Amino acid sequence: MTIKQFQALRKSVIHYVFLFLMFSACSKSNEPDKKEEEKPLPTQPVQFNNPVFEPVLADPSIIKAADGWFYGYGTEDNWGDGQGNRLVPVIRSLDLIKWTVMGNAFTTKPQWKTDGGIWAPDVVFIDNKYYLYYSYSVWGDTNPGIGVAIANSPAGPFVDKGKLFLSNEVGVPNTIDPFYLADADKKYLFFGSFSTALNQGTYALELADDGFSIKNLANKVKIAAGDFEAVMIHKRKNYYYFFGSKGSCCNGSASTYQVRVARSTSLLGPYLDKDGRNIVERGNGTLLISGSDKYAGPGHNSRIIADKNGVDWLLYHAILKSNPIVPGGASRRTLMLDKINWVGDWPVIENEIPGDILRKGPEF
Fold first, then answer.
1. Which of 52, 217, 247, 319 would be 296's cystine partner, CB 3.0–4.6 Å?
2. Catalytic one of 59, 122, 160, 338
3. How far apart are CA 319 and CA 257, in angstroms?
4. What is the reported pTM?
5. 229 is catalytic
């Protein structure tokens, strides 16, 4: 190739490269902004239907832990899956809908009582530790009790700190279903379950500052009659709201559990229902939720959890009537989730029965 031929070829290449770059620039100027295209769409709310966890999470306690996850805890139970009794099963979720089994809260059963199961845990975060208040009882126990355990992690293992009291020590029959609440720089434990004895009922006692003992067993305050159990107290605006369960919890499809509410301007009562009746008298309380054609025995609810939009949600257990028993014979108390609406400063669940349609879930 001669020098002239090379120079001509070079000019031709430069010309075509120039045209290609011009064309590319023009084409690019007509393209939509890719950054606009790549902006993520708004996250669609998760839809769900009940139950949100199965086969069993009875008497659920739900807490949002310091790691950002929700943890759920339930009564010791045999799920009928060949793994035997679970010593307070622990599950975990980010949205209250999709749950993963983490294990058990206890590796060994507390030793301060000779027989019984670990029932109705209430887990709370106190002074950078996780406290687990629990019942220790057999069915029909004449002297059940309440204890407390502690852990550094919400998943456990929890180390037992021992007994708080037995029924015969506090003078209240059926002392189960503990519920912790701090208010006005004081710590309280609420407890109690079904009984027709003269000293029956749900009571409150003040805890010591460390939460590991009771200040004075004689200073108990009666909150509700003995036709209630599974107390939960929720503070909202100027009221304290009492949530408690009535009826039978564990008779499979024949279970009659239901949740009723009352409210007070004082933590220690008196708690009055919507008709102004004091719940220290039997037969009172305003219905929040009861069984339906599909589900039996909705009850023993968790604390109320608010999502990022301020919507309140309640978790509780209920029994599917068409599949009410696990292989080991226990009632199949699945974990349920429903939204609470506030109407005239009273909590309301739609239709007063467990939700059973696909609907929008909580947003976090």
1. 319
2. 59
3. 10
4. 0.87
5. yes
Longest dimension (CA), the chain: 119
- How far apart, in whole angstroms, are the C-alpha atoms of residue 162 and residue 112? 7
Structure token digits, residue 100? 């993963």
3-state helix, strand, coil in the chain (%, to 5): 10, 40, 50
Tokens of 240: 């304290």
Using the structure block, give the residue that is written with the tokens 């408690």: 244
Q: Is 59 a catalytic residue?
A: yes
Cα 15 from Cα 9, distance rounded (Å): 10
- The residues, ordered by sequence, that sit 6+ positions from 277 with a Cβ below 8 Å of its Cβ are 284, 285
The superfamily CATH assigns to domain 57-360 is Glycosyl hydrolase domain; family 43 (2.115.10.20)
Measured between alpha carbons, how far is 50 from 353 in angstroms, rounded to an integer? Answer: 12
- At residue 319, what is the residue type? I
DSSP state of 278: B
Spell out the residues 6+ positions from residue 258 whose beta carbon is closer than 8 angstroms to its own: 245, 246, 247, 287, 288, 289, 290, 291, 297, 298, 299
Neighbours of 108 (CB within 10 A): 8
Contact 362/312 with Cβ under 8 angstroms? no
Catalytic residue among 122, 160, 227, 229: 229
Return the domain boundaries, the chain: 3-32, 57-360
